[in-house]
Write a structure and sequence with these properties.
Elements lengths: L18 H16 L7 H23 L10 E4 L7 E3 L5 H4 L5 E4 L2 H4 L2 H16 L7 H17 L1 H4 L20 H20 L5 H25 L9 H5 L3 H8 L10
Parallel strand pairs: 1-3
Antiparallel strand pairs: 2-3
Helix pairs in contact: 2-5, 5-6, 6-9, 8-9
Length: 264
């Protein structure tokens, strides 16, 4: 068997929730339970997630003048044991579906109380909501998602002594991303795994297909995140205009060592 390499979920380093952050979250949850909140009730946890997304949407409006109307926000649902936080929306016929029911799916209370995850999924939705009617392009979607993390982290000094401090978390933060070298190393490892089992006489079609998708996802996320990490947030003043740009213009102006901030 090939030498073990980091799994896709661990690429980017060990930026876990600190003890202090855990204590803040537990204190907050204890106060909710005292008021009758049931941590084992999916509806209660989902309701909390919806509230947090709504609050961040309002914070982004106050700080960056970008948001979507409350009635058009995606619903939030919690599905224990699912993949990390992700957003699900209507890709086909975007223009007619932007005001229909869309979802941010969270994997549990940890996601609900993580401002990085909530902000990333919310800005994924901003991009879907504001972009022109165009084919879906994952790499630019991930670019805007990571910008959500960065916009949230830019506000953190103001969040420290507020009710929103409970959403502060290292996990999924702006440093919790893979380098190109790490991603290529992971990609190589997945190919070695398939070769190992194939050489030992096993049927690998399903495994190969699954790992191919993971390789593709890792490479796309890494590239989108990398370019988003280089954007100078201070150079952008019209965030709605930025999120509304066509994919080709985003790539031309920002997937480059010398980003073009003109008109923004």
């Amino acid at each position: 068997m090939p030498e073990f390499e980091p799994t896709l979920s661990s690429l980017g380093g060990d930026y876990e929730t600190t003890k202090k952050q855990q204590e803040e979250k537990q204190k907050f949850l204890d106060s909710l339970v005292k008021d009758g909140f049931d941590l084992n009730n999916k509806e209660d946890v989902t309701g909390l997630g919806r509230m947090m997304v709504g609050e961040i949407n309002e914070l982004f409006f106050q700080k960056y003048n970008i948001s979507v109307p409350e009635g058009d926000l995606p619903l939030v649902t919690v599905k224990e044991g699912t993949n990390p936080a992700h957003v699900v929306y209507h890709i086909e016929d975007k223009e007619s579906n932007k005001s229909k029911i869309n979802f941010i799916i969270l994997s549990g209370i940890g996601d609900v109380l993580n401002g990085n995850y909530l902000s990333e999924e919310l800005t994924h939705f901003y991009r879907f909501y504001l972009e022109p009617d165009q084919p879906n392009e994952i790499i630019t979607d991930e670019f805007f998602g990571f910008l959500g993390r960065r916009l949230w982290n830019k506000m953190l000094p103001e969040m420290q002594d507020t009710d929103f401090s409970v959403l502060v978390d290292n996990k999924g933060g702006i440093n919790d991303i893979a380098s190109k070298k790490e991603t290529l190393k992971y990609s190589k490892y997945t190919r070695e795994v398939v070769k190992y089992w194939k050489d030992n006489g096993y049927e690998v079609e399903g495994l190969e297909k699954g790992l191919k998708e993971k390789r593709k996802s890792a490479l796309i996320h890494q590239r989108g995140y990398e370019y988003a990490s280089k954007v100078d947030l201070e150079q952008i003043h019209d965030w709605k205009k930025f999120f509304s740009m066509p994919n080709a213009e985003v790539r031309r102006r920002f997937f480059t060592p010398n980003p073009d901030y003109s008109g923004l």
